[in-house]
């Protein structure tokens, strides 16, 4: 086997789209039909996602960020309102709240599964709080059993940021389905990608109608672009049939993709269990599927350097949001978020990794930890 630092081994990218060879057929059909805007294929994708998640409605939009922002707007949340957001998430969760015009109040996470801490949520609810955006971090469901009664009692809505949790089940429910609505992302590092794109799922008919208006200039059904009526305010956050043509063939094989992700986590666990200096966060429920394999490592820099030297992709967890310029706040409120952010990393999680790749990556990590 070549030396791990001689540069001769093939690079392994952290993640990448996993296309099926059928996207081109779908794209050709869309191009031949000459209707490349938000049309019948986007509706088909919505119907399939709603059926899969088990909600009455699904509305396709331009991104996961737009999905969260439009959900808040559709719930009538905006200027003057406050929305609770966990401190450890991709910054899009908080930015979406700002896009809706509301202000963000950051809340610490719980340290085992990385969801928002229900006790901290309870303590943070104030007179202007109108919603909580839960984040199902890396496919692990937030603690809905505790969060739902807290939010119900306080009269605030739950919007689920399930961007990383399509197909993952928690507490017997598909993630995305709790609360008022759930938001998915089809950006490039997700199980199903359209390059960009998002989807909102909900059982609430009023939310569904308002979301259709908000994504299409105040029209509930598509118009001519000419002398249409625009009875309410809306914008342009549409998804297109070109994107749906790319997403649909992937979505048709989502179960295989979820099974591959489970096997990937197990393959890493087999190679990395019981290594000093490293812990594999728990996978507490059999129905949960992680978007990427995650690890907590004391000396993350050493592991990262060894992976870099072997051209193996990886990513560090996000910085806590309260340390980002738009959301600056005092460290003392966020001990768990700071600790997990410091130690967390995602390993290469492409869906086409082989047993030989897992052997190689596992060996690089184990040897970095022993050094
Ligand atoms: C937790 C989380 N929230 C929100 C988003 C935003 O989705 P998008 O990039 O589609 O806007 C992402 C992914 O990118 C995410 O991982």
SSE blueprint:
Blueprint: H1 23-33, H2 40-53, E1 57-61, H3 64-74, E2 82-86, H4 92-99, E3 103-107, H5 118-124, E4 129-135, H6 144-154, E5 157-161, E6 169-170, E7 173-174, E8 181-185, E9 198-202, H7 205-215, H8 241-252, H9 254-272, E10 278-279, E11 294-297, H10 300-309, E12 314-316, H11 335-343, E13 344-347, H12 355-370
Parallel strand pairs: 2-3, 2-4, 4-5, 5-8
Antiparallel strand pairs: 1-9, 6-7, 8-9, 10-11, 11-13, 12-13
Bound molecules: pyridoxal-5'-phosphate.
Give helix and strand order, one letter per element, not per position. HHEHEHEHEHEEEEEHHHEEHEHEH
Q: How many domains in all?
A: 2
Please state the second-level CATH architecture of the largest domain. Answer: 3-Layer(aba) Sandwich
Given the C-alpha coordinates, what overall shape results? globular
Q: Count the E strands.
A: 13
Number of helices: 12
Assembly context of the chains: single chain
CATH superfamily of the largest domain: Type I PLP-dependent aspartate aminotransferase-like (Major domain)
Bound molecules: pyridoxal-5'-phosphate
Rg calc? 21 Å
- Beginning-to-end CA distance, first to last residue: 20 Å
What is the residue-mean pLDDT, rounded to a whole number? 95
The stretches of 5 or more residues where confidence is low (pLDDT under 50) are: 1-7
How would you classify the helix and strand content by structural class?
A: alpha/beta
Largest sheet: 7 strands, mixed
Main sheet: which strands, in order across? 1-9-8-5-4-2-3
CATH class (first level) name of the largest domain: Alpha Beta
């Amino acid at each position: 086997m070549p030396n791990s630092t001689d540069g001769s081994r093939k690079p392994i990218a952290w993640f990448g789209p996993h296309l099926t060879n059928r996207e081109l057929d779908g794209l050709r059909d869309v191009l031949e039909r000459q209707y490349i805007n938000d049309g019948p294929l986007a509706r088909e994708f919505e119907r399939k996602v709603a059926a899969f998640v088990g909600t009455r409605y699904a509305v396709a939009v331009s991104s996961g960020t737009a999905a969260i922002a439009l959900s808040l707007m559709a719930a009538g949340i905006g200027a003057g309102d406050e929305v609770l957001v966990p401190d450890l998430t991709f910054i899009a969760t908080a930015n979406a709240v700002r896009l809706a015009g509301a202000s963000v109040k950051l809340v610490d996470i719980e340290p085992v599964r990385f969801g928002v801490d229900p006790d901290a949520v309870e303590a943070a609810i104030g007179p202007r709080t109108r919603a909580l955006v839960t984040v199902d971090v890396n496919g692990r469901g937030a603690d809905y059993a505790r969060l739902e009664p807290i939010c119900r009692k306080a009269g605030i809505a739950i919007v689920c940021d399930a961007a990383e949790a399509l197909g993952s089940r928690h507490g017997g429910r598909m993630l995305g389905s709790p609360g008022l609505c759930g938001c998915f992302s089809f950006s490039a590092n997700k199980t199903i990608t359209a390059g960009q794109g998002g989807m909102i799922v909900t059982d609430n008919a009023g939310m569904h109608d308002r979301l259709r208006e908000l994504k299409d200039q105040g029209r509930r059904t598509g118009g001519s672009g000419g002398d249409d009526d625009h009875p309410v305010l809306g914008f342009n956050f549409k998804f297109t049939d070109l994107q749906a043509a790319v997403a649909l063939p992937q979505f048709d094989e989502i179960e295989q993709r979820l099974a591959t992700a489970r096997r990937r986590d197990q393959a890493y666990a087999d190679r990395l269990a019981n290594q000093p200096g490293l812990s594999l966060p728990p996978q507490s429920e059999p129905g949960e599927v992680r978007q990427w394999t995650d690890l907590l490592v004391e000396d993350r820099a050493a592991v990262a350097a060894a992976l870099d030297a072997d051209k193996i992709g990886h990513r560090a967890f996000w910085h806590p949001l309260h340390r980002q310029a738009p959301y600056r706040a005092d460290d003392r409120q966020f001990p768990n978020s700071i600790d997990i952010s410091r130690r967390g990393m995602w390993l290469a999680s492409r869906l086409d990794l082989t047993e030989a790749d897992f052997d190689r990556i596992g060996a690089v990590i184990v040897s970095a930890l022993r050094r």
